Amino acid sequence: MRLTMRRRQLLGAALLIPLEGLAQTCGVITPRQTEGPFFSPNSPQRTSLIEGGEKTRLVLAGTVLTPDCKPVPNALLDFWHSDEQGAYDNRGFRYRGHQHADAQGRYRLETIVPAEYPGRTRHIHVKVQAPRGRILTTQVYFPGDPGNKRDGLYLPELELKRTKAGEGNFDFVVSV
Ligand SMILES: [Fe+2]
User: Fold this and answer.
1) Ligand 1 (ion): which residues have CB within 5 A?
2) How confident is the model over 60-71, as a mean pLDDT?
3) Residue 81 C-alpha to ligand 1 middle, in angstroms?
4) How far is CA 41 from its chain centroid?
5) Average pLDDT over residues 114-132
Protein backbone atom coordinates (compact mmCIF):
# COMPACT_ATOMS: atom_id res chain seq x y z
CA MET A 1 0.00 0.00 0.00
CA ARG A 2 2.74 2.38 1.01
CA LEU A 3 4.72 1.54 -2.07
CA THR A 4 1.73 2.33 -4.28
CA MET A 5 1.32 5.72 -2.65
CA ARG A 6 4.98 6.51 -3.12
CA ARG A 7 4.84 5.46 -6.72
CA ARG A 8 1.85 7.72 -7.25
CA GLN A 9 3.63 10.65 -5.66
CA LEU A 10 6.67 10.07 -7.84
CA LEU A 11 4.50 9.88 -10.93
CA GLY A 12 2.79 13.10 -9.94
CA ALA A 13 6.14 14.84 -9.43
CA ALA A 14 7.38 13.61 -12.81
CA LEU A 15 4.24 14.89 -14.52
CA LEU A 16 4.63 18.31 -12.93
CA ILE A 17 8.04 18.94 -14.48
CA PRO A 18 6.97 19.30 -18.13
CA LEU A 19 3.91 21.31 -17.10
CA GLU A 20 6.08 23.80 -15.22
CA GLY A 21 8.42 24.01 -18.18
CA LEU A 22 5.52 24.81 -20.48
CA ALA A 23 4.23 27.51 -18.15
CA GLN A 24 7.59 29.25 -18.35
CA THR A 25 7.80 29.28 -22.14
CA CYS A 26 4.46 30.99 -22.62
CA GLY A 27 2.14 33.01 -20.44
CA VAL A 28 4.32 36.09 -20.59
CA ILE A 29 4.39 38.16 -23.77
CA THR A 30 7.90 38.27 -25.26
CA PRO A 31 9.59 41.55 -24.24
CA ARG A 32 9.57 44.25 -26.89
CA GLN A 33 12.83 45.82 -28.05
CA THR A 34 13.74 48.72 -30.31
CA GLU A 35 13.82 47.90 -34.03
CA GLY A 36 17.07 49.92 -34.29
CA PRO A 37 18.14 51.91 -37.34
CA PHE A 38 18.42 49.06 -39.88
CA PHE A 39 14.90 47.73 -40.48
CA SER A 40 13.79 47.67 -44.13
CA PRO A 41 10.15 47.06 -45.05
CA ASN A 42 9.10 44.67 -47.84
CA SER A 43 11.68 41.93 -47.21
CA PRO A 44 11.44 38.89 -49.50
CA GLN A 45 9.34 35.92 -48.38
CA ARG A 46 11.81 33.09 -47.70
CA THR A 47 12.84 30.68 -44.95
CA SER A 48 16.54 30.54 -45.90
CA LEU A 49 18.79 33.59 -45.88
CA ILE A 50 21.86 31.50 -46.81
CA GLU A 51 23.82 33.06 -49.66
CA GLY A 52 26.47 30.34 -49.99
CA GLY A 53 30.01 30.25 -48.62
CA GLU A 54 29.11 31.32 -45.09
CA LYS A 55 31.01 29.66 -42.27
CA THR A 56 28.71 30.00 -39.26
CA ARG A 57 25.34 28.56 -40.20
CA LEU A 58 22.39 28.65 -37.85
CA VAL A 59 18.93 27.11 -37.89
CA LEU A 60 16.58 29.06 -35.65
CA ALA A 61 13.23 27.39 -35.03
CA GLY A 62 10.35 27.58 -32.61
CA THR A 63 6.67 28.27 -32.18
CA VAL A 64 4.60 31.43 -32.02
CA LEU A 65 2.22 31.19 -29.06
CA THR A 66 -0.59 33.16 -27.48
CA PRO A 67 -0.30 34.17 -23.79
CA ASP A 68 -2.49 31.13 -22.95
CA CYS A 69 -0.03 28.83 -24.73
CA LYS A 70 -2.00 28.18 -27.92
CA PRO A 71 -0.12 28.14 -31.23
CA VAL A 72 -0.68 31.06 -33.61
CA PRO A 73 -1.18 29.55 -37.09
CA ASN A 74 0.09 31.67 -39.97
CA ALA A 75 1.83 34.21 -37.71
CA LEU A 76 4.11 36.56 -39.65
CA LEU A 77 7.81 36.61 -38.75
CA ASP A 78 10.12 39.16 -40.39
CA PHE A 79 13.82 38.62 -39.58
CA TRP A 80 16.84 40.82 -40.23
CA HIS A 81 20.40 40.75 -38.94
CA SER A 82 23.98 41.76 -39.68
CA ASP A 83 26.40 39.72 -41.79
CA GLU A 84 29.57 37.92 -40.69
CA GLN A 85 31.38 41.27 -40.52
CA GLY A 86 28.69 42.99 -38.45
CA ALA A 87 27.29 45.04 -41.36
CA TYR A 88 23.66 45.36 -42.49
CA ASP A 89 22.59 45.40 -46.12
CA ASN A 90 20.70 48.68 -46.24
CA ARG A 91 20.36 48.76 -50.04
CA GLY A 92 19.21 45.22 -50.72
CA PHE A 93 17.79 42.35 -48.68
CA ARG A 94 20.83 40.25 -47.71
CA TYR A 95 20.01 38.56 -44.38
CA ARG A 96 16.45 39.85 -44.48
CA GLY A 97 13.36 37.74 -45.00
CA HIS A 98 9.84 37.11 -43.81
CA GLN A 99 7.83 33.92 -43.48
CA HIS A 100 4.53 32.67 -42.08
CA ALA A 101 4.33 30.11 -39.30
CA ASP A 102 2.61 26.84 -40.22
CA ALA A 103 -0.78 25.60 -38.96
CA GLN A 104 0.84 24.67 -35.60
CA GLY A 105 2.48 28.09 -35.21
CA ARG A 106 5.92 26.72 -36.03
CA TYR A 107 8.62 28.60 -37.92
CA ARG A 108 12.09 27.64 -39.14
CA LEU A 109 14.78 30.02 -40.36
CA GLU A 110 18.03 28.95 -41.97
CA THR A 111 20.65 31.64 -41.73
CA ILE A 112 24.06 32.44 -40.26
CA VAL A 113 25.25 33.57 -36.85
CA PRO A 114 25.54 37.34 -37.27
CA ALA A 115 28.64 39.16 -36.03
CA GLU A 116 28.62 41.74 -33.28
CA TYR A 117 29.15 45.38 -34.23
CA PRO A 118 30.24 48.42 -32.19
CA GLY A 119 28.00 48.76 -29.15
CA ARG A 120 26.02 45.58 -29.84
CA THR A 121 26.41 41.94 -28.96
CA ARG A 122 25.29 39.28 -31.47
CA HIS A 123 21.53 39.49 -32.08
CA ILE A 124 18.79 38.80 -34.60
CA HIS A 125 16.01 41.33 -35.08
CA VAL A 126 12.46 40.14 -35.66
CA LYS A 127 8.93 41.44 -35.99
CA VAL A 128 6.26 38.88 -35.08
CA GLN A 129 2.57 39.38 -35.70
CA ALA A 130 -0.47 37.18 -35.23
CA PRO A 131 -2.98 37.56 -38.07
CA ARG A 132 -4.70 40.91 -37.40
CA GLY A 133 -2.67 41.20 -34.15
CA ARG A 134 -0.32 43.92 -32.96
CA ILE A 135 3.27 43.76 -34.27
CA LEU A 136 5.80 42.65 -31.65
CA THR A 137 9.28 43.99 -32.47
CA THR A 138 12.12 42.35 -30.56
CA GLN A 139 15.60 40.84 -30.76
CA VAL A 140 16.98 37.38 -30.00
CA TYR A 141 20.39 36.84 -28.34
CA PHE A 142 22.97 34.05 -28.15
CA PRO A 143 23.60 32.30 -24.82
CA GLY A 144 27.13 32.54 -23.47
CA ASP A 145 28.19 35.32 -25.82
CA PRO A 146 30.82 37.42 -24.00
CA GLY A 147 29.37 40.56 -25.60
CA ASN A 148 26.02 40.09 -23.83
CA LYS A 149 27.13 41.69 -20.56
CA ARG A 150 28.50 44.75 -22.38
CA ASP A 151 25.23 45.39 -24.28
CA GLY A 152 22.63 47.50 -22.49
CA LEU A 153 19.80 46.11 -24.66
CA TYR A 154 20.59 42.43 -23.99
CA LEU A 155 17.97 40.55 -21.94
CA PRO A 156 18.53 36.97 -20.71
CA GLU A 157 14.87 36.10 -21.39
CA LEU A 158 15.50 36.83 -25.09
CA GLU A 159 18.29 34.25 -25.40
CA LEU A 160 17.69 31.46 -27.86
CA LYS A 161 18.04 27.97 -26.43
CA ARG A 162 20.78 25.95 -28.06
CA THR A 163 19.40 22.57 -29.12
CA LYS A 164 22.55 21.25 -30.84
CA ALA A 165 25.53 22.67 -32.70
CA GLY A 166 24.32 25.24 -35.20
CA GLU A 167 20.70 25.04 -34.02
CA GLY A 168 18.68 27.19 -31.65
CA ASN A 169 15.09 27.43 -30.47
CA PHE A 170 13.02 30.43 -29.51
CA ASP A 171 9.27 30.54 -28.88
CA PHE A 172 7.60 33.92 -29.30
CA VAL A 173 4.55 34.84 -27.22
CA VAL A 174 2.39 37.51 -28.84
CA SER A 175 -0.95 39.12 -28.11
CA VAL A 176 -3.74 38.23 -30.54
FE1 LIG B 1 21.01 45.22 -34.93
Assistant:
1) 36
2) 97
3) 6
4) 20
5) 97
Sign of CA dihedral 128, 45, 89, 39: negative
Q: How far is the CA of 3 from the centre of ligand 1 (A)?
A: 57
d(CA 88, CA 38): 7
Per-residue pLDDT of 109-122, as tens digits, reads 999 999 999 999 99
CA of 111 to the centre of ligand 1 (A): 15
CA of 125 to the centre of ligand 1 (A): 6
Longest dimension (CA), the chain: 73
**What is the structure's pLDDT at 51?**
92
Distance (angstroms) between ligand 1 centre and the Cα of 38 equals 7
pTM of the model: 0.86
User: For residues 103 and 123, what is the distance between their CA atoms, to the nearest angstrom?
Assistant: 27
Counting other chains too, the contacts that 116-123 makes at CB distance below 8 Å and 24 or more residues apart are 116/86, 116/145, 116/147, 117/82, 117/86, 117/87, 118/86, 119/151, 120/147, 120/151, 120/153, 121/145, 121/147, 121/148, 121/150, 121/151, 121/154, 122/147, 123/81, 123/151, 123/153, 123/154
